[in-house]
C-alpha cells in the first residue's frame, strides 16, 4: 500500500492559481510512490472540483464551512479535523499554503504531532529512507538551503509559489470526492484582560490584501514614500516593497514581496518604479490585475502587466496624492 501525502489548500472566493500549481507539482512528482489527498477548506465549485481531479490526485476532501466564521481557517475545530484526517490517511507529508491561515494551521498541527515544520519552501524532493528534502531561500535569497526533518512519523511544510506549468490528465475516475459540511465553533476557555485599546491605523497584511501598492528602487525620494503611505492609509490598501527598495532604504523586510519575501495574490497590484526582477515577479504572479508605472518603456515588468503607464513615476504619485488629499479634506 502506498504512503500518503496530504495537501491543504484554502479558498475565499476562488481557488488561486498557486493552489493548482502546488497540487499539480506535488502530484506530478510523487503520485507513483504516494497517494495524494487534497483538503480544500471553504468549499469548491463544480468546475474547480473537475480541475483538481484532473491533476491526478487520489482523494479530494471538500470542507464547506458555515458563513459566520468562514474565513477563520485556523479555528480549533478545523485543526482537529485536519489532525484526524492526517492520522486516518497515515500521511507521511502534510503541505500547507504559505498564507497567514496556512502558517497558523501548520504551526498548530506541527505542535500536535511533535514534528519539524519547514517554512516557505520553494521546492520539495524525495531523499533516502522516506525523508523529504525541502528547499527554501536563505540569506535574502542569495542561496537556496536544503533542510531535512528526521525522527518524525510525519513531515510538514508551508510552500510559496511553484511556477512549473500545470499538467492535467484527460480523466481521473479513480479520484474519490468527499464533501464535509463543517460547523466552526467559537473558541472559548481563554480569558483575556483588556488593558488598552489602540485605534487601528492601517492593515498591511500583504497575503490577504485585495489591493497592494508596490514600491521599487525607482522611488528614490523619501517624500514620495511618505506620500504613497498616506495614499494607502486613506484608501485602506496595503504597501509592499521590492528587495532592492528594502536594501536601499533600510525598510522593514516583512513588507518585501518576492521569492525571498511574501507571495501575494491581490485583485489589483500597482507597481511604482519597479523594473521587474524575476524574484519579485514570482511574488506577484497570482495578482489578478497588474498596473505598472515606469518611465522606462523597456522595463521587464511591462511584459507581465495588464495595464502600462510609461510616465514619470514621481508625477503619478504626486497626482494621486493631491486627489486623495482633496477627497479627505
UniProtKB/TrEMBL annotation:
Keywords, ordered alphabetically: FAD, Flavoprotein
SUPFAM superfamilies membership: Adenine nucleotide alpha hydrolases-like, DHS-like NAD/FAD-binding domain
Entry's Gene Ontology BP terms: fatty acid beta-oxidation using acyl-CoA dehydrogenase
PANTHER family xref list: ELECTRON TRANSFER FLAVOPROTEIN ALPHA (PTHR43153), ELECTRON TRANSFER FLAVOPROTEIN SUBUNIT ALPHA, MITOCHONDRIAL (PTHR43153:SF1)
Any single Pfam family the record assigns to this protein: ETF_alpha
Cofactor binding description: Binds 1 FAD per dimer.
Name this protein carries in UniProt: Electron transfer flavoprotein subunit alpha/FixB family protein
InterPro entries associated with the record: DHS-like_NAD/FAD-binding_dom (IPR029035), ETF_a/b_N (IPR014730), ETF_a/FixB (IPR001308), ETF_asu_C (IPR014731), Rossmann-like_a/b/a_fold (IPR014729)
Gene3D superfamilies named in the record: HUPs, TPP-binding domain
Biological source species: Mediterraneibacter gnavus (Ruminococcus gnavus)
Amino acid at each position: 500500500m502506498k504512503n500518503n501525502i496530504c495537501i491543504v489548500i484554502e479558498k475565499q472566493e476562488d481557488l488561486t492559481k498557486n493552489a493548482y500549481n502546488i497540487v499539480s507539482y506535488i502530484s506530478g512528482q510523487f503520485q507513483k510512490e504516494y497517494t495524494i489527498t487534497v483538503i480544500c477548506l471553504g468549499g469548491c465549485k463544480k468546475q474547480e472540483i473537475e480541475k483538481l481531479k484532473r491533476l491526478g490526485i487520489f482523494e479530494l476532501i471538500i470542507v464547506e464551512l458555515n458563513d459566520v466564521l468562514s474565513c477563520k481557517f485556523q479555528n480549533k475545530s478545523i485543526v482537529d479535523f485536519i489532525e484526524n484526517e492526517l492520522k486516518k490517511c497515515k500521511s507521511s507529508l502534510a503541505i500547507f499554503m504559505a498564507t497567514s491561515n496556512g502558517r497558523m494551521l501548520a504551526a498548530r498541527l506541527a505542535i500536535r504531532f511533535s514534528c519539524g515544520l519547514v517554512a516557505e519552501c520553494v521546492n520539495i524532493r524525495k531523499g533516502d529512507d522516506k525523508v523529504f528534502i525541502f528547499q527554501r531561500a536563505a540569506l535574502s535569497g542569495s542561496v537556496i538551503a536544503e533542510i531535512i526533518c528526521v525522527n518524525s512519523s510525519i513531515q510538514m511544510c508551508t510552500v510559496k509559489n511553484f511556477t512549473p506549468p500545470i499538467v492535467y490528465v484527460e480523466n481521473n475516475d479513480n479520484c474519490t470526492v468527499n464533501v464535509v459540511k463543517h460547523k466552526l465553533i467559537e473558541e472559548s476557555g481563554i480569558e483575556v484582560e483588556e488593558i488598552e485599546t489602540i485605534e487601528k491605523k492601517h492593515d498591511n497584511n500583504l497575503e490577504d490584501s485585495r489591493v497592494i501598492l508596490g514600491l521599487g528602487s525607482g522611488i528614490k525620494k523619501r517624500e514620495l514614500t511618505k506620500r504613497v503611505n498616506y495614499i494607502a492609509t486613506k484608501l485602506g490598501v496595503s504597501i509592499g516593497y521590492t528587495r532592492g527598495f528594502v536594501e536601499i532604504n533600510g525598510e522593514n523586510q516583512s513588507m518585501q514581496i518576492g521569492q525571498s519575501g511574501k507571495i501575494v495574490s491581490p485583485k489589483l497590484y500597482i507597481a511604482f518604479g519597479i523594473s521587474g526582477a524575476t524574484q519579485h515577479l514570482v511574488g506577484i504572479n497570482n495578482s489578478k490585475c497588474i498596473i505598472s508605472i515606469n518611465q522606462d518603456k523597456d522595463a521587464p515588468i511591462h511584459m507581465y502587466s495588464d495595464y502600462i503607464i510609461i510616465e514619470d513615476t514621481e508625477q503619478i504619485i504626486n497626482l494621486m496624492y493631491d486627489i486623495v488629499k482633496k477627497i479627505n479634506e
